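Might I ask for a little of your time on a matter of protein folding? What I wish to show you is a protein chain and, alongside it, a tokenised description of its three-dimensional fold. I should value your view on which stretches of the chain appear to form regular backbone elements. You will find the record immediately after this paragraph:
***
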Amino acid sequence: MDLPTLWFWIVAFLFVGYFVLDGFDFGVGMSLPFLGKDDTDRRVLINTIGPVWDLNETWVIVAGAALFAAFPEWYATLFSGFYLALLLILLALIVRGVSFEYRHQRPESQWKGRFDLMIVIGSAVPALLWGVAFANIVQGVPLDADHNYTGTLFDLLNPYALLGGLTTLLLFFTHGVVFVSLKTEGELRERARRLAVRSGIVSIVVAASFLLWTGLAFGTLWFWILAAVAAVALIGGWLANLRGAEGIAFTLMAATIAAAVFALFAALFPDVMPASNDPANSLTIENASSTTYTLTFMSWVALIFLPLILAYQGWTYWVFRKRVSRATIEAATH
């Protein structure tokens, strides 16, 4: 495997990590109106991700930095052409982060209600738009000879891309609700499990439609293999949740998202940004990558620091592995 190909899959791995980890964060945020019957419930939900949500978000920063360094042409085309969509994602992430920090600063229910709404919006917008963005990357967008995007924001909102956005929205929502059932106790845990059963059915139908569309239009052998893994894991996760095995359900939901994202990269390979108007204008692994020296240096850095980052994040989750209950939240207020 040459260095550009290696770094293509490293970038894929970083986006997989982001979607798996921040995906359940988004799902928990979107679940507030469905599971939060009162302020204590909502505080329990927020506290399930309180120690880790900002750590999970750093994966997108690392993915963006790796993309910039390894594939500067891809980065330039993506971030200039998808500027408005990515700006909306950034603003939503800012709103969401601010809301986590500010909702508890005043006791008024109206104050908390506004920030709860901002958490829901700040979680749903990225969950939708990331799917829209990646679907457009796989499908291809109009590029000129200098690899500049020549379409508009509304060109990105086509039926295939919107189906991709709905797929990520539903998968992240179900992933988050399963995480709530894994991290809570009592009635809230049961309500989360029942909600995951219902949302899981819809997720299976929508995700199957998107993967089938992708496979028929852009599929490769590796895409079909990974899509099959994603489908089996999603159905297995739904069945495990139905039986109350939250740990297995959460693991299989993570595997679903990971396999689905890898499948999209497999459908994209060896292109990184296909040109829908003229294949000659497409960006590929070869014409979008950095020099061999740059990629070699990056490989040594990744070899040293990536295991340390994974170990640190694993240790963080181990430290905060206990369930959150209404009793612990109510006791903390006294």
